[in-house]
UniProtKB/TrEMBL annotation:
The keyword Oxidoreductase applies. SUPFAM superfamilies: Dimeric alpha+beta barrel. Pfam families: ABM. The lineage of its organism: Bacteria, Pseudomonadati, Pseudomonadota, Alphaproteobacteria, Hyphomicrobiales. One of its GO terms (molecular function) is monooxygenase activity. It comes from the Bacteria. Keywords: Monooxygenase, Oxidoreductase. The keyword Nucleotide-binding does not apply. It comes from Roseibium marinum. Residues 3-45 form the ABM domain. This is Antibiotic biosynthesis monooxygenase.
C-alpha cells in the first residue's frame, strides 16, 4: 500500500509469540500522520484491530537530532 505522507509502515510479528505484533511507522511529518489516522482504510479497520488487541500502546519518537535542537 502506498500512502502519501507515509515513509514506512512495517508490521512485525514475534518469532516466539504468534500473537505479539509491533508496527513501525514513519511519516513525512505530523500532517502525514494525521492524514493516515483520518483515512478511510484506517478508520475501517482500527476499531476491529483494537478490539482484538490485549494491549495497545502508541509511543511517539522524534529523530535524535531533532530532539536535541
Amino acid at each position: 500500500m502506498v500512502e502519501q505522507g507515509v515513509k514506512y509502515f512495517v508490521p512485525y510479528r514475534s518469532p516466539t509469540d504468534a500473537l505479539s505484533f509491533f508496527v513501525y511507522e514513519l511519516y513525512v511529518d505530523e500532517a502525514g500522520w494525521d492524514a493516515h489516522n483520518k483515512s478511510l482504510h484506517f478508520l475501517s479497520v482500527v476499531n476491529e484491530l483494537v478490539s482484538l488487541a490485549a494491549h495497545r500502546e502508541r509511543v511517539p519518537f522524534v529523530p535524535l537530532a531533532q530532539s536535541m535542537a
